[in-house]
Specification:
CATH topology: Trna Endonuclease, Chain: A, domain 1
Radius of gyration: 13 Å
Number of domains: 1
Shape: globular
Distance between the termini: 11 Å
CATH class: Alpha Beta
Helix content: 25-40%
Strand order of the largest sheet: 1-2-3-4-6-5
Number of strands: 6
Number of helices: 2
Order of helices and strands: HEEEHEEE
CATH architecture: 3-Layer(aba) Sandwich
Amino acid sequence: MDGHLRIYAEQLNSEVFHYRDQYGLECDAVIRLYNGSYALIEIKLGNKAEEDGAANLKKLESLLVNNAHPKPSFKMILTGGQYAYKRDDDVIVVPLGCLGV
């Protein structure tokens, strides 16, 4: 899935990074555009994994914002599912096929 995400990011003229910090927080992918905006992405399979991914994304967003970084443009869980939707907590769940790559 990571290779597909990189192809998608290239079409947006952006870069993809993996994030890990000294607090133990980790994010599978961060897409950063050259204008400074960014998105946080977790790659997960299964329902419980979705909950874990959403919790991690919200925790990471909170840490970044509390350390004077701007909010991410969006938080997304990339999955192997069939349907894309926005959760009540503003985390977007997107099947790989929706990237159109």
